[in-house]
Amino acid sequence: MKSKRDKLLRISEDDHKEVESTRLRVSFDFVDWDTADLFFLHGLELDHYKKIFNCIDKLGQSTEADILQQTHESLIPKPIFRNEKGIRSSFPEGLVDKIKAKFGAELANNGDPDENAKKVAATAFEVRVHGKGYGRIHGFVWNKSFHVIWFDPAHNLYPRTGEKPKTHREYATVPGFSPACVEVVRDENRKLHDDHDALRGEFEAVCKERDELYEQFANAGAAVASNLALSAAGQAPSF
Question: What is the pLDDT of residues 45-72, one digit of tens each?
């Protein structure tokens, strides 16, 4: 017969296994768009987006242990900011404050929330999107979630040996449309609409003139026919 201690150990082991098998939630609450010249998501080819979405799906199917223990075979997770080879030594300033603002109550339960927020932000990893030509996704892991910070399709955080980071203008192949670009297109559309209205007005005027000429021609033809008939009857034609 199992003792109470054995039952408690079994419950503890089951709870541990359940936690270990819990799938990651992928969060975009902290995505940094302010450094979009180096870390961006716009201007990519369709195939690249498919690879990114597939990577996100794999993240959602993985566990926290897969990332922290770097055991996922295709995502190949690696800790970042551990050496001086990268172009950044940490995530953007202000992230710690955002983490504290969102998770303050939970962080306060285990000591100093400021120090805990810094530790959370420091649990930083990158995962591979697909092969070597599609870049990385960078974020931090906490509370069974992978919080995305940067999309790095050009592999800019850790450029390949001998290469420099590629800006969005240098790397992206699909042109984007800023609000200013959209306004230019709207102006062109308005002008084309006005030109269309002007041409339509001219066309309607020509059609009206044509109809008037048709009517005059028909009236003239009727008058000629009437006079011919009168002449044939020996009467004087009317003019």
Answer: 999 999 999 999 999 999 999 999 999 9
From 176, 199, 224, the end of a domain falls on 176
User: How many domains would you assign to the chain?
Assistant: 2
Q: How far apart are the first and last CA of the chain?
A: 131
Taking the C-alpha atoms of residue 88 and residue 173, their distance in angstroms, rounded to an integer, is: 25
Say if CB 26 and CB 146 are below 8 A apart.
yes
SS3 call for 140: strand
Question: Distance between CA 4 and CA 7 in Å, rounded?
Answer: 5
Q: Would you tell me how many other CB atoms lie within 10 Å of the CB of residue 99?
A: 24
Residue 98 has pLDDT above 80, yes or no: yes
**Backbone dihedral angles phi then psi of residue 176, each to the nearest 5 degrees:** -95, 170
Helix H or strand E segment including 147: strand 145-152
